[in-house]
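Escalation from tier 1.

The customer reports that the assembly of two entities below gives different structure tokens on two consecutive runs. Tier 1 could not reproduce it. I'm attaching the input and our single run for tier 2 to review.
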Amino acid sequence: MNQKRKIRILVAKPGLDGHDRGARIIARAYRDAGFEVVYSGLHQTPEEIVQAAIQEDVDMIGLSSLAGAHMYLFPRVVELLKEKDAEDIVVCGGGIFPEEDIPKLKRAGIKEIFTPGTPLAVVTKWVEENLKPRG
Amino acid sequence: MGIAEKIISGDVTAAAKLIRDIDDMVPEARAILKELYPFTGMAYVVGITGASGVGKSTLVDQMVTHLRKAGRTVGILAVDPTSPFSGGAILGDRVRMQQHSMDEGVFIRSMATRGYFGGLTQSIKGVIDVLDAMGKEYILVETVGVGQDEIDIVQTAHTSIIVLIPGMGDDIQALKAGILEVGDIFVINKADREGADRTVSDIKFMIEMDEKRYKDGWKPPILTAQAVYGKGIREILDEVEKHREYLTSSKERQSKYRYEKTRNDLVEMIKDKIVYEVLDDIIHSGEFEEALQLIMKRKIDPYTACDNIVLKKLKPGKG
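Tier 1 run:
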């Protein structure tokens, strides 16, 4: 019997940001959409996040940031994934960002950015439409 | 370098990907497990189980700290339940183990129970073999202690630790015939809470009642701990070592233990293989659907339908 591959996602809180209500709600929405979600907990360095993503063999990392350090933290995660030959792991971001940062983040390799007010269904649908579990 | 070789040399990415394949039941993973098998058998496997919220992850985290100080490498397998409605899962055990995330001597993997036809135990055994072949000296398997699947997992460990908290008095009686019977070590965590003494004596009573079972054998110690403050951890690891010595000190006992464990493992593996090979075929056959309709119309009883289908599949030509 062949089981279908499950999508695995790491939801991570990089940097000095103590607010994880949003990240938890996203984690819950992903679970309810049928994905396996690994939650990192607070105050993770990009190095720790990438290490966890590799050990857990996830298809995607969802970074949550409300504290303003996203312009360093998010691209750094993408960079480290490249260093570790794991650039096939998709990186997305969610949280509060100045409008002008969003195109910059996308240029830095963040696949999609979700801002406050995005319906949960949009967030989970994005995964269904854009992510294939890695073979 | 082949995948098996990479894993044996400690390659984290290769191991992580193979674990995914085992979990997703990719047939090719089995071939690699066969290659890895000669390099397994060195790790000591400790199972940690208990209801949610008793502090298993925190306890594991603290045990890892001690083992690392002693220079031991550790693999951690944290199992969390899959939602029966969506098939998804939130795996949050890493949160309590953050301090070890950059330590190269520690490999942490979260797994969901998924909805296997009993396949969880097989997957876990496969993953334990991967961590073992990677050279991890201790493998800590953390599960929520409910259901037969989890009792099976606990029994794959060399030493099983059952974690309880004060205030579970009556529950202990209810649990008596389940997971508690397979515990080698009992830990009452959050022991600063009211009722810790009572819980200790409840467990003690339960063990004494079962005196015959423990006669001339290993009598499970009952320890108290406050994992969040790192209290009582040393003592737990000491008991793990004592239990390990107990298992290995007598040749006779060791070979009996190995025989039973190997036998159980093989029985389980065969059972799973049969389910894997046969069940899917049956369920997707026209015959199955036909029988289903007949049962629903009450034209045939399910007992006869089942016998017909299974016997036809397993013993063609007969019946």
